[in-house]
Amino acid sequence: MSAKSKCLNPNCQNAAVTRGLCSACYVRANEVVRAGLTTWEKLEAAKKILPSQRQKPSAKKWLLERAS
Ligand SMILES: [Zn+2]
């Protein structure tokens, strides 16, 4: 258990925010996935992001509730 985990990118010293990545690296991950260079599943399999199950499963629902 690590209360404050670091970004999974070994070249990055920022604190992890989303799926084990800092916000900057998560944006990069989002970009490469959107560009079709990889998928979230591949990144997860390569241990470059954490499984989404580690996030609160209700987060999406919660976000949408707040947004609407
Ligand atoms: Zn990072």
Explain what this protein looks like in three dimensions:
The protein is mainly α and 68 residues long. It has one domain. It is 40% helix and 0% strand. The protein has three helices and no strands. The protein has helices at 23-34, 40-45, 59-67. The longest helix is centred in the middle third of the chain and has 12 residues, at 23-34. The protein is globular, with a radius of gyration of 13 Å. It binds zinc ion. Zinc ion is lined by residues 7, 9, 12, 14, 21-22, 24-25.
Share of residues in helices: 25-40%
Bound molecules: zinc ion
- Strand/helix succession: HHH
Q: From the alpha-carbon coordinates, what is the Rg to the nearest angstrom? A: 13 Å
Q: What distance lies between the first and last C-alpha atoms, to the nearest angstrom? A: 35 Å
Average pLDDT, to the nearest integer? 87
What percentage of the residues does DSSP assign to strands (E)? under 5%
DSSP, total strands: 0
Q: Classify the oligomer.
A: single chain
Query: Can you tell me the residue ranges where pLDDT is under 50 for at least 5 consecutive residues?
Result: none
Structural class: mainly alpha
Large-scale geometry = globular
